[in-house]
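Predict the 3D structure for this chain.
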Amino acid sequence: MPVDEHALFAGALAFMCAAVIAVLVAKRIGFSPIVGYLLVGIAIGPIGFNVADPSVVHTVAELGVVMLLFLVGLELKPSHLLSMGHYIFGLGTAQLVLTSLAFALLAYFGLGFGVAAAVVSGLALSVSGTAIALQLVGERGDLASPYGQRTFSILLFQDIAVVPLLALVPLLAPGGESEIHDPKGTLIQAGMAVGAIAVIVVAGRYLLNPLFRVLARSGAREAMTAAALMVVLGAAGLMEIAGMSAAMGAFLAGLLLSESTFRHELEANVDAFRGLLLAIFFMSIGMTLNIDVILHHIPRLVVGALAVAVIKSVVVYLVFRADNIAPGDSLRASVALMAAGEFAFVLFPLGLANGILRTEQTDLLIALAALTMVLGPLLFAGVSRYLPRFTPPAPEPPADDFTDADGSVLVIGFGRFGQIVSQCLLAQDVSVTIIDKDVEMIQSAGRFGVHIYYGDGTRLDVLRAAGAETMEVICICVDNKEDANRIVEIVRTSIQGPRLFVRSFDRVHSMELVRLGVDFELRETLESALSFGARTLEALGVSESAAEARIADVRERDRARLERQMQDGLFAGGDAFSRPKVEPEPLTEPERRARPLNPEAQDILTHETEFSG
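Done. Predicted structure below.
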């Protein structure tokens, strides 16, 4: 095998092993896998095995960012994106302008950079790492939260701003003013960008769904995977040819397919590639660190990284607080957006090529950007771990005034289960008092004319204030098993009068509730599953009466099994759901008796005759 092929396999093996080790070590110490990828990238880079050219690896690994943005687009819908316009252009503009201005002033007055160099440096450092921020916020499951949506909006605006920023750099170069008077190139580039967007929009609306339908009918799963990758890479490549961000093209393609019936298939096909390529992307960032530059300028780089962290975090924090985001979430967003982005590795060399930055300035700034990429995930992990210790719990709103509350039934919990229970009672004109501790749920119900009292049903004083002692029935419909058990115990020990009807979560919970002495318990999925089974039987040709009889039998068997389990343990009663015994058909009687051919056969026939007799 040629030496180059040996090197290729050795490099691939090193990256795969490094990815596995990075995840295991990072999870073990409680950090994000990103931290592990970055540190492992440093280890296998210039100071370690030097297994590959970092620039080549980084170029390939950027496909991970492209696929990440495609999946983010799949999660959104065009209508949702339009509703985020205020965040994209309001918060995005505020963050980019304020952060760029702060960095530019620091570079000009503090570091002695020229005006053009200060502007380029400020713009490059103000743009955040899309892959890092989305991965950090996504790992916490916060992308759909208010601060997660605003974080994504800022990142999306930064991607949109890439083209104008790239066009601005040549204008800042010595003699670049002449380009202003020749707008032909700018108009051509703008036209290409609009044309690329139009092609993606038309293809997404009119071509891709028919294509995926044809592939789905063919049953060739590998063709669907290839088509998914073709869509991502095609959109990214088209936007890059037009001079725009490749990730932006992938996001646009994902957005157009977000309402497609093939959305989940596409997501499943792309996600595996996305995870692997993102891991390599973060390792490549660690590999790009110029250790010689870092070792010679450690004090300056440490101070610079801290300055970037503080300035960027403070600006983002203030922008988020101005938009009424909670302090803790604002801090998380500010740290997630703190790291410089991959755009810095494009803008700094472009500034050098246009004579705006000197070589030593470019090397220092690239090292600084890479260090912030390492520092950002570390700080985010620290904030996520220690913030809850220093953040006082949100003050619990006082319980409502129950003076006007009266009724014969108290419903505790107004989630999906409690809503249906309440609907049945109210439809029969039963007087009901409903309490819940979810403020957003209470406000939402109020918009539909349903009055719910705020109160924590696990507190005895709240139950008494809600009139629990005068109720005929208390329906416990909360969506937490421990809370349900606690309410049962409180009512049984301190109130005692009302009958207790309780939502159960599973068979084990039902057994617990029976032991606690409730009057009625029902597993939340039992009756819906029985109804589903009845309709399925009818669809198979079973008459409605026969289906209902069979379901009644299953229901009775389930009740009997639960009683046996209460007596003999969880594994008792397993035969309650055995299929009905099949009575074998009688065998056909032989027309004449067998004739033995030897003495042994004679003995057998003789014994059979005696046995049957």
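Residues 126 and 264 are 35 Å apart (CA to CA).
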